[in-house]
Specification:
CATH architecture of the largest domain: Alpha-Beta Complex
Shape: elongated
CATH topology of the largest domain: Nucleoside Triphosphate Pyrophosphohydrolase
Largest sheet: 7 strands, mixed
Structural class: alpha+beta
Helix content: 25-40%
CATH superfamily of the largest domain: Nucleoside Triphosphate Pyrophosphohydrolase
Strand content: 25-35%
Oligomer: single chain
Number of helices: 7
């Protein structure tokens, strides 16, 4: 038994070390603009460059757990939407060491994150059109995450994760315009939206932009629809 154990362990000895990290592409919506959370890199190499927020995977966690840990540490939030994007393994992707990164993208409501924690980590929210150049292959990660987000938005009500509990129809239209980076026809968009079963009109009105006000809606989390959600952005 001891011989077999030693023989088994020998397979792992004197092997080249490869680091594995998780990088989080964190999208947020402030009811007007789709934004991305980034920070200035605090370590060499490339210290001071703008970067996605990430961490090496620890011995006692998997990639998903590492991503959730990062999100909680930075935003203070738990139970939020996060999905694995893809693995980035180019040999020369990181000048510091041979490092493979697993991209995880997340969707949060900006007004719910812990601003003190975000500030403590030196992180900033940037709109997509003001996003600075990012370090390493992080620009590609953002592009891939946006492509995934747009694909998801075509087939599912993405507002569950990005909108507040109550919202107006213009707000959800603005969200989709931000995701697809294009103006949408209000009449057609709202007609399609209201033909589905997952929106519930409330008796509450938002009068911040007009005296008449606009009715607030909320998502019906329990409602099932027989219709496919297909949005052509």
């Amino acid at each position: 038994m001891e011989f077999a154990k030693n023989q088994q362990n020998s397979w792992y000895e004197n092997k080249e070390q490869v680091l594995v990290a998780v990088d989080c592409i964190i999208f947020g919506f402030d009811n007007e603009t789709l934004k991305l959370l980034v920070f200035k890199r605090e370590i060499q190499p490339l210290k001071g460059s703008w970067s996605l927020i990430g961490s090496f995977i620890r011995q006692n966690e998997n990639a998903n757990q590492a991503g959730l840990r990062i999100l909680k540490d930075i935003t203070g939030l738990e139970n939020i939407f996060m999905e694995e994007l893809k693995t980035y393994s180019a040999v020369d992707r990181d000048p510091g060491a041979r490092c493979i990164s697993i991209g995880q993208y997340a969707l949060i409501r900006i007004d719910e994150n812990n601003k003190e924690l975000v500030n403590k980590h030196g992180a900033f929210w940037f709109s997509l059109d003001e996003l600075p150049e990012l370090v390493l292959d992080h620009n590609q990660m953002v592009k891939d995450a946006l492509d995934r987000l747009r694909e998801k938005a075509r087939f599912s009500p993405i507002g569950f994760e990005l909108l507040p509990k109550h919202f107006t129809l213009p707000q959800i239209q603005t969200l989709y315009e931000q995701i697809f980076q294009k103006k949408l026809d209000s009449r057609n968009f709202r007609k399609k939206l209201l033909s589905l079963n997952f929106l519930k009109k409330t008796e509450i009105k938002d009068k911040s932009s007009s005296k008449k006000g606009a009715y607030l809606y909320e998502f019906d989390y329990e409602m099932e629809t027989d219709q496919s959600f297909i949005f052509k952005g």
